[in-house]
Amino acid sequence: MTHNTCWIRGIAIVLVLGLIPAGSGVSSDAANGKKPLTIIVMDPLSAPLSCDCVKGYAQRKYEALGNYLQTQLRRPVKVCWSESLETALNDEAEGRADLVIGKYSVVLFDAKASKRTLEPVAQLSGKDGKTTQTGMFVVRSEDPAITTADLAGYRIFFGPEDCDEKFAAPRNHLKKLGLTLPEKNEEFPACSKAAAALMKLPAGSKAAAVISSYAEKLLEGCGAVKKGDLRIIGQTEELPFITAFVDSRLSASEKTAITAALLETGTVAELLTALETDSGFVEFEPPGTPVAASK
């Protein structure tokens, strides 16, 4: 989801060096004598990739996680933000992706395109404790549709292929209901653009859009739609959301140490606040059924 006035585009970078808390027991030699652990953050709810339109939401500060991991792992940490894994690898990350944190399907999609093998090791819980998201079917408030079963013959505005919750899952959902997918494939790169396109249609148009559940608050907050413009009539199954992946080329000891540190984040109050999470990172649970659908 992007917005012309609120969303920060491109890549930001923070090199987390020399910021070890007093009394941590980590010497400067330990921090400076090892190669930095490179983290690529693709979380759409992180501050550099989101907006501050909704107070206390979508402003996750991964700098705090970088400081924490530096202390726990006794090595310098480099944190990069990007909507694209390939872009980050070619720029600030300088070809390294030791730890990648982002939407499960997007990271896997980008990793395949970048010919990288990444292994999921943990999931970030939201403020509600959930580690999942859904795709939501929305129509204009005056539309007669009550449930997704009423969308026969409707135009459907889907999301891009890398976002399972807006692409594969809603298609599968409609197929299970016995509905025929629209002949014309209409995809929008962001929830805000799909919502805006829906609102611009003439009165009486039979159309619906699929948005990410996490983006619902942001549509009104960023001004993409007004309160009451849209109505949710259904949603997809639960899908994995923000997931931490490690580079398969790391040593077994490195993977174990990183995973263990992530799973301890729930015990650090400051991190819970910075990452807008209820329980921090928790053990990764593979999705029950792989999501796959053709256009």
Describe the structure.
There is one protein chain. With 295 residues, this protein is of the alpha/beta class. The protein has two domains: 159 residues, 3-Layer(aba) Sandwich (D-Maltodextrin-Binding Protein, domain 2), CATH 3.40.190; 104 residues, D-Maltodextrin-Binding Protein, domain 2 (3-Layer(aba) Sandwich). Helices cover 26% and strands 22% of the residues. The protein has nine helices and 14 strands. The strands form three sheets. It has a seven-stranded mixed β-sheet with strand order 1-3-2-4-13-5-14, sandwiched between helices. Strands 9-8-10-7-11 form a five-stranded mixed β-sheet, sandwiched between helices. Strands 6-12 form a two-stranded antiparallel ribbon. The longest helix is centred in the first third of the chain and has 12 residues. The N terminus and C terminus are likely disordered.
Fold-level CATH name of the largest domain: D-Maltodextrin-Binding Protein, domain 2
Number of strands: 14
The H/E string reads: EHEHEHEHEEEEHEHEHEEEHHE
Roughly how many Å apart are the termini?
21 Å
Shape from CA axes? elongated
Query: What amount of the residues lies in strands?
Result: 15-25%
What's the structural blueprint in terms of helices and strands?
Blueprint: E1 12-16, H1 28-32, E2 37-41, H2 62-73, E3 77-81, H3 85-90, E4 99-103, H4 104-113, E5 118-124, E6 132-133, E7 135-140, E8 155-158, H5 168-176, E9 186-187, H6 191-200, E10 207-212, H7 216-221, E11 230-235, E12 239-240, E13 242-247, H8 252-263, H9 269-274, E14 281-283
